[in-house]
Amino acid sequence: MTDKPPVHEALSAVMDDVRAVRKDSRNADQGYVFRGIDSVVNAVGPSLRKHGVVPVPMLEHASYRDVQTSRGKPSREVTVQVRYRFYGPAGDFIDTVVPGEAMDFGDKGTAKAMSVAMRIALLQALALPTDEPDADSQTYERAVPVNREAAPSPTKVLRQKISDLSSEKGWDVAEVSKYFVELYKVPSTSASEKQLSEFLDLLTADGLPVPAEAGAE
Fold it and tell me: Which residues pair with 171 in a beta bridge?
């Protein structure tokens, strides 16, 4: 037995001490005020120490990708998932899992994302009131991705050329396909680039050796 309070009682005491965190930072890009990580830790830290609560971060996942801002500046986007384990004075604990996301032009993306995760964990675990979504001191607009269609495969291009030639010559498509199978023992949809190329050359030079003209009277 111990006379030390369990972690949920210790956290409740911290919540009783810290009723709110004032917004004292301003976003340089969009001009709004927000609670930075320093403000939250400065407000909560003394009470956590007073009541013997120790938050321990455990990184569960991190992902990175290179992105561009709308102005074309290269940046690194970092997304983390962190488990914060709040140990109480009696040695028991409560877990909370939170995300964190940040962008940075240099090598500070991970540190920023972890700071965001810690701020979220403290604000939500202690039910600190907010009247607008929390945000980082810097914001970025991603560039709109360019929608580039994948280039058609060589075999698809060759099949289209054979189709166009057949239409130009008035050949029955079924007869053209039948002729291809007779020569190569596979349908054109399964043929190699070399087979399709040879067949196109053959049709261009000798035509279709069957009397099958589309629309002929």
Answer: 213
Q: Can you read off the two tokens belonging to residue 142?
A: 């991603």
Over 80: is that where the pLDDT of 144 sits?
A: no
> Residue-wise over 42-60: b if at least 16 C-beta within 10 A, else e?
ebbeebbeebbbebeeeee
**Phi-psi label, residue 184: left if phi above 0, alpha if psi -120 to 50, beta otherwise:** alpha
Give the per-residue pLDDT at 209.
82
CB atoms within 10 A of CB 93: 16
The Cα 68–Cα 75 span in angstroms is 6
Q: What distance in Å separates the CA atoms of residue 6 and residue 100, rounded to the nearest whole number?
A: 28
- Confidence (pTM): 0.56
Residue spans of the domains in the chain: they are: 7-125, 154-206
Q: Both tokens of residue 63?
A: 């992902």
CA distance to 80, 87, 111, 131, per residue, from 17 (Å): 30, 18, 28, 20
Q: C-alpha distances in angstroms, 39 versus 43, 74, 123?
A: 6, 30, 11
Helix (H, G, I), strand (E, B) or coil at 85: strand
Name the class of domain 7-125.
Answer: alpha beta
